[in-house]
Amino acid sequence: MNNIPSVDLADFLSGDAARKQKFVNELGKAYEEIGFVSLKNHFLSDELVSELYKEIKAFFALDVAEKKKYEIEGLGGQRGYVSFGKEHAKGKKEGDLKEFWHFGQEPTEDANLPEDYPENVIVKELPDFNKTGMEAYRMLEKTGINVLRALALYIGVDEHYFDHWAANGNSILRPIHYPPITEEPQGAVRAGAHGDINLITLLMGASTGGLQVLRKDGEWIDAIPEEDELVINVGDMLERHTNNKLRSTIHRVVNPPKEEWGNPRYSIPFFMHPRGDMKLNCMPECVDEQNPKAFDDITAGEFLHQRLVEIGLIKK
Ligand SMILES: O=C(O)CCC(=O)C(=O)O
Ligand SMILES: [Fe+2]
C-alpha cells in the first residue's frame, strides 16, 4: 500500500486552469507535510524503462574487475561506476549495501557554466547502455522541470523561475544495484537514513519495496508507488532555498526479511541539481516573522562540494 499522496502530471499539463491549480495545491501541500509524492503520467515510456533496466542489469552483471575499470579516480564518484560499500549516509560509518552508476549532464554549447562538468564514462561492453541512459535522463529532466514549475507557482514566483537553473543543471541519473545479502550485515543497510542533497529527486523502481520515509510524527512508513509511478521528493537544496517551507524528508532503504536476502533490488533515482552558480539563499517569499531566515547564503556548487565530502565520495 502506498502511504504517500499520488498526483497526476496530466492535471498540470491539461491546459485547464482549475486542474492545473489542483495539481499545484496537491503537490505543494504534500511537500509541506510528508515531502514525498508519487507521480503518474510522467514522460518516461514503459518501453524506455524496460530498456533501461535491461541495460543496467547487464552492466551490474559484469565481473567486478570489469566494472572497476569504470571507477575513475578523482571524479568524486560523479560519473561512471561507484563500487559496493563506498558511499555511506552522512554521519554513518558503515557503507551502504549498494553499487551504482552515474550518468551526468551533457550541456548545450551555449550553457556558459561556471565550471565544466566531467565527461560521461562510456561502457564499451554494452553498445546501447549510454544512449539508453541519456534518453531516460532527458525524460526525467523534462518531468522534473514541470514539477519545479508547479512548485514555483506554489511558492508565488514566476512559473519559469527554475527553468534557467535546471536547464544544463548538474543533475545525475543513478542506477543502483543492491545485491543479494549473503552474510549478516553487521549494522549495514541497503541505504542508511538520509536526506537527498539536490533540488528534487525522481525515483524509478520503488514499487519493489524497501523504501521508507520518516513521517513528521517520527514513524517510518513504507513508500510503495504503483509500478508506472515515479516517487518524487524534495532535497536539501530546495528545503534550504524555500527556508524550510518545502521539506527534505529523511528516507532509507531497509534490508528485506532474511528469507528474501537472496533477491537483489534495483532502483534508479534522478537527482535533479541546478547549475552550480544558482544561489540557494532563502527566497524572500518564504521568509517572514514566523519563519525567519534559517540558513546562510550559499551557491549550489559550494553546497554540493560540502556534502560530497560528508558522504565519503570526495576526500578533503
Ligand atoms: O533505492 C531507493 O529506493 C532509494 C535510494 C535513495 O534514496 C538514494 O539513492 O538517495
Ligand atoms: Fe535518497
What this model shows, in words?
This protein has 316 residues and is an alpha+beta fold. 28% of the residues lie in helices and 17% in strands. It has one domain: Jelly Rolls, CATH 2.60.120. Strands 1, 2, 3, 4, 5, 6, 8, 11 and 13 form a 9-stranded mixed sheet that branches. It has a 4-stranded antiparallel sheet with strand order 7-12-9-10, with no helix packed on it. Helix 2 (17-33) packs across helix 5. The N and C termini lie far apart (43 Å). It binds 2-oxoglutaric acid and fe (ii) ion (FE2). 2-oxoglutaric acid binds at residues 176, 191, 196, 203, 206, 211, 251, 253, 267, 269. Fe (ii) ion (FE2) binds next to loops.
Features:
316 residues, alpha+beta, Jelly Rolls, nine-stranded mixed sheet, four-stranded antiparallel sheet, 8 helices, 13 strands, 28% helix, binds fe (ii) ion
Task: Give a short synopsis of this structure.
28% of the residues lie in helices and 17% in strands. With 316 residues, it is of the alpha+beta class.
